């Protein structure tokens, strides 16, 4: 069974490219367009093995999203990769405090994302 | 782009669409703030747009977009943090930057090479961004001597990286390394799995020896299942350099102890490492030998060195006491969060949209059209068989088909707001060019219209708006003299109206000049001097080909070729336009459009053996053909003369022989006419099929449809029929 990765980002093209790269690496990808959608997708999915979330999103930003999901016992140990930019050092610290311990700096190449995910979860 | 991986090509397409949407959002937000003042929420939205474009562009290797948006983002970041203000100058700059990115994307899509104009704009904007950021523009920034954006012919070569094999350069020979790992206690709690890092390590090299350290494991009763006590000593063989190996453990480096040393390397380095690790020195040394990173001799040497350092008192104690730390949860105000979420859920519902290719949708609508025809045939045959159960089920199918048809057509509908969204910018820029102060008011959002119609109507609408700004709205002095506010206003309004849509462009300018139009039309030979014309008829003259009353030709509303093209465009989607104008008060251009382009309510009539379709919206009433009518071509309808049109004459058929004939009264604009037919067959949903090339130019027929029995029926073009009839009777009147 391929592992489920939830990709939360408001950019559809980013989700699409990340999804292509991760599926190429043998993962299963579920997409969500913001934090609220992300929580809905978490609730609907069987098991999510890893979560990739953008920081800057409408409706519910990535920090709030991670804080909320880390409150749930079933996601306490689920790894979270946060997407930040260099300009967002402060956000990165907030994200880490919220429970997102891994991060990838935007802009990144699809292959880099696959590498980051492979470090945390086996396909 | 042809050779690109189809999935990536699709993603790139998404990127283009998404970026255009984001740039549009950015523009709307900027224009709003220009009017209403800056607010943080909108500044954030603008920032997010630039940010998202930058992030996604990076994924496609569009480095130039990344660089350009990066500078844009810098300025936005400073505006967001309050270091810089959102001055009118900055708004204009940001708008131009948005246009520039849009231009770049357009060129990329159409593979249009960059011209000098584009490149100089690029340099200009970069310099402007730099000076807006308060940086010294004379500084030798390499990015300023070269345009940031370049278009390459081969997009595919830049998007192929997805298939690139990760860094194994075959020329480099593999080296032996020693990796010492002590995972932090919080590793599990952070969502990390030590094992997956080790597996990943195998992707960049070979683990030749590994010992798991369990020294830190407490007694079972003391053990906390959530705490990580693991350590590893690994002998590793790889072509990767030290930085790449360290990079594997990037995510855990903050809380873990990680050492990467060349195997059999400097003894001093090993010693230092041994000293820093919590396990017993001797024990650790044996492990290093066991995994093969050190030879026994090397170990001996290291331990000897350590004894020396012991005497200087630098030796770290063995087995550091591990303090168990309870992870403290971030206090989150749960109530506030839930409230926030509730507010946003409703917004979110609107965002659950699905992008569908227009082509697929067209295909679906086409199929539904066929289904409508097939269902009509089905009902027809069921009717012939006169089997009640069959009839019942076929009408049930027909009803469902109609519902599907409505549903499918709704899919093509877009909110008129989407059509209107480019206008704030157009009005703003045009007003500046004209040096007039003009305000745009938009209303009627929520009105829906067919997407392809919106596309066709967009340019004519733009022309009407510009025309109203240029010719409609008077200069400020003139307005003030007339007792009007100096600021002119343009109103764009949309609404549903009896099975169609009406879009109005109104201005509060001087109104159309009746006499001027009449004079001009006389000059151009469009009307004769003795012709008596009503106001709407005179106003309609401005849509005649080649008509222009502007005293001077301006850049804004073209060179007198516009208005007739506007009318043609509108009529090509079976719409019409009429004008209301009050001198001194303003003008309203009213565009009437059908709801959809592909299906109409048809009114079926019979002409000898053939069936014709009249669009039901044009039909006013049906009468019996009066016995008293002569050959004059007129009948009396409620004391008004009604011109009669004999279709058999139009289509050059044998004269109708039936004694009982019908007259269908149809209307277009203000004109009415009675169409003489052999019989009336009633209303039917009609799927519009374009005419073949051969019949494209048949006057009086706009399209065709296929009837339930398989026959083809022409759809009558009522506006043309009426116009032709009036033109012919006018000519014959002159002859008499």
Automatic annotation (TrEMBL), chain A:
Protein origin, superkingdom: Bacteria
Name under which the protein is recorded: Response regulator
UniProt source species: Acidithiobacillus montserratensis
From TrEMBL, chain B:
Originating organism: Acidithiobacillus montserratensis
EC numbers on record: 2.7.13.3
Annotated keywords: Transferase
Domain of life: Bacteria
Enzyme class, broadest EC rank: transferase
Name of the protein: Chemotaxis protein CheA
Classification lineage: Bacteria, Pseudomonadati, Pseudomonadota, Acidithiobacillia, Acidithiobacillales
